[in-house]
Amino acid sequence: MAKTTVATQLARLRKEREALERKEKALLAKTNDKVLGKIVALAKEAGLTAEDIAKAMRGTAGAGRAKAKAAGAKKGPLAGKKVAPKYRNPADHSQTWTGRGVAPVWAKALKDAGKLESAAI
Q1: Are residues 42 and 96 in the same domain?
Q2: Handedness of CA 48, 49, 55, 59 (dihedral sign)
Q3: Inside any domain, residue 75
Q4: Residue 33: which H helix or E strand, with range?
Q5: Which residue range forms the structural domain that includes residue 53?
Q6: What is the per-residue pLDDT for 79?
Q7: 66 and 10 in one domain?
Q8: What is the pTM of this model?
Q9: Residue 116 contacts residue 87 (beta carbons within 8 Å)
Q10: How far apart are CA 30 and CA 84, in angstroms?
Q11: Block mean pLDDT (10 aa), the chain, length 121
């Protein structure tokens, strides 16, 4: 008898789940209709065609820029430019550091000691 009770409970829960899924789909459809209406209104206002929107959805708009960056293009106007050194190792004057990137061991030691500014050029 317990199996029958469990079976009926499971059947009832499945029906409830199906009803909730139908309600969820209906609510999503309403929301999607509202959003699509806004998108269509904005597209008309901007003079965009369905083809323009489809192209943007595929990600082909601006694909040339993505390819250029992937090919190793410079990231910014200062990328790859030489920068004058900002710090000099007091123990070995041939070692300098620009203050960018990973600090060399000697600069990190000075920084940890709070004396990095003493090595400023």
Answers
A1: no
A2: positive
A3: no
A4: helix 2-46
A5: 2-70
A6: 75
A7: yes
A8: 0.37
A9: yes
A10: 61
A11: 80 96 94 90 90 84 55 69 91 92 93 92 90
